[in-house]
Amino acid sequence: MPEQPSDATLFDRLQEGLRDHYERVFPDPLLPRTVIVNPSLSMDLEVLSKITGLQHYEERMLCMLLLLRLPRTRVIYLTSLPIDPEIIDYYLHLLPGIPSGHARRRLTLISCRDASAVPLSRKVLDRPRLMQRLRNAIPDPENAHMTCFTVTDIERKLAIRLGVPIYGCDPSINDPGCKSGSREAFKNAGIDVSPGFERLRDEKDVFGAVTELKRKHPELRRAVVKLEEGASGEGNAVIPLTDAPAGSGLGKWVEDELPKRIAFEAKGETWEGYRNKFREMGGIVEEFIEGKDKASPSAQCRIDPAHRIEMISTHDQVLGGPSGQIFLGCTFPAIPDYRLQIQEAGLKVSEVLKDLGVIGRFGVDFVSVPDAAVPGGWRHYGIEINLRKGGTTHPFMMLQFLTDGTYDIETGSFFTPVGQERCYFASDNLESPNYRGLVPEDLMEIVVDHHLHFDATKQKGVAFHLIGSLSEFGKLGMICVSDTVESSKKLYDATVEVLDREALPQALERDGS
Q: Which of 123, 174, 346, 357 is most buried, judged by most C-beta within 10 A?
């Protein structure tokens, strides 16, 4: 009996057709195509569970519904639970120049109706009848592809079963997307990284790495420990070292004090739980970069199926949490002082990733501190590479889809078709207990009453996401688009003020009952 080809071989065959599909179909907006949107959060579930309203993060890729502005494009959107029709209507009404009914006929929503803590891709594979409906919804697999939040072996298996390629990174070459692989890729690209150690396996390695860091850098105030596959900073922890002893007693002090002193970014984390997770996935230890005016810029890049590199955007990340490592939101573009430097660094990393065979969209994150001794006045340290969609992905996609504008690589700015500059402030983490109980219809009423919408004529305004998490978790995301970052932030603050004011009477009535 002939040997059956492996999943890796079958996937390679599918991916070979992606370049032809990309060069033949993508340039022509009138050609028929099918895009399967798979927002499966196929990452470590214990780490992800620290994120409030995690189940609704499948909604962050609803920006892909705006692909329906292409009149012969079909979109199939997969979810664990059904999405409220009010939310779907909201996105379809954002489509410029396309009747919502026309778009709705080209949209297929497929839900597993399963809220369990299992990746969406696994849920789909475990439902043969649902799989058949999914196959039936693809009119021509030759003109179809899948886009995913992240690509793992599960997404690869799903693609093979459907017979369609994935526009994303092959999971066999995803090592640069872990913390250790990121550090190594930065070094290969000639980008500075914080002093540290990678490929650590357990707490003994952590103790040794922290001890060696402090020994080599006596002035070190804090070290940061990171899980290989932490998300949004939730896998990070900080150990203060200002009062650590010098000399031979340092190693014993670290072993004794680190479990007691370590401070976790994730809410409710414990040393025992973190230690066990570190044993499972490994990680890194590196110097915590200090700085009064420290910034956290990010470059968003893409390597297309023809292996061409494209710079998509730069952002300044808005971070919070106990030590400022949790992703809260972002501003676009990054500040003028260094945006072109971040762009250049992102392109250098992209060259390294291209040589490894990476394709798809990815983010390259930095920590930057003022330094008069270097050109431009800022020193940039590579922090991590996300070989997946991330917190800066959907806001920029929304800006592109809503305005039909373009990113100018010469200036690092974004311009509408008539040459007007556009910027934004975006957040995934607008959260208030007073918002709990507000259903999507309530939000839509507030939007209409206070004109909190995106105005296509002015190409400015507000677009919401994560709407499904509002009622249960009091959490919401939004992107506020204007002609400057400052005016975008003012629009965000004004929108929050309206939401707070409108939510308060309901919260008072609820809490007083």
A: 346
